[in-house]
């Protein structure tokens, strides 16, 4: 399975100031890149906090899977903009589930704990990191863990006047 991690991060490596951050420090160009790339991929995987921070329209034209310890709390959840399902289990369990449904590629969109769990399990195959020209000083890290994972730089491009995208593969 191809698991593509997509994130916006500050120059000092944070993906949010705190759990209530609306990411307004990112540009409209990054938001458009995110929309285009996740629609191209078709399936997004995220944690509960990321899911709860996104507006319902963010799920339009995509299949979304939310990792949560308590999927029952979302029983009866309806999103008129896209398909959203809730899953409890390890990253490897989700991959097995998705492969059983012939899903070959997913966009991993956070948060930091989910990203780290997939990295530590050795499941991430590509990364798209938008570097925003801001130093937050503290906040939520998007990448972590104790693993020594090395990636190969595939390409870079300037997304906006002050942002760059780094595309890596394993």
Textual characterization of the structure:
One of its GO terms (molecular function) is 5-amino-6-(5-phosphoribosylamino)uracil reductase activity. Pfam families: RibD_C (PF01872). Residues 2-170 form the DHFR domain. The structure is a single chain. The protein has 170 residues and is of the alpha/beta class. The protein has one domain: Dihydrofolate Reductase, subunit A, CATH 3.40.430. The chain has 4 helices and 10 strands, in the order E-E-H-E-H-E-E-H-E-H-E-E-E-E. The strands form 2 sheets. An 8-stranded mixed β-sheet has the order 5-4-3-6-1-7-10-9. A two-stranded antiparallel sheet has the order 2-8. The two termini are 13 Å apart. 29% of the residues are buried.
The tally of strands reads 10
User: How do the SSEs run, as a string of H and E?
Assistant: EEHEHEEHEHEEEE
**Level-1 CATH class name:** Alpha Beta
By CATH, the superfamily comes out as Dihydrofolate Reductase, subunit A
Largest sheet: 8 strands, mixed
Count of all domains: 1
Domain DHFR: 2-170
GO molecular function: 5-amino-6-(5-phosphoribosylamino)uracil reductase activity; dihydrofolate reductase activity
Pfam family, one: RibD_C
Protein name: Dihydrofolate reductase
What is the fold's blueprint, element by element?
Layout: E1 2-10, E2 14-16, H1 28-41, E3 43-47, H2 48-53, E4 63-67, E5 83-87, H3 91-100, E6 105-108, H4 112-120, E7 126-132, E8 140-141, E9 152-158, E10 164-169
Parallel strand pairs: 1-6, 1-7, 3-4, 3-6, 4-5
Antiparallel strand pairs: 2-8, 7-10, 9-10
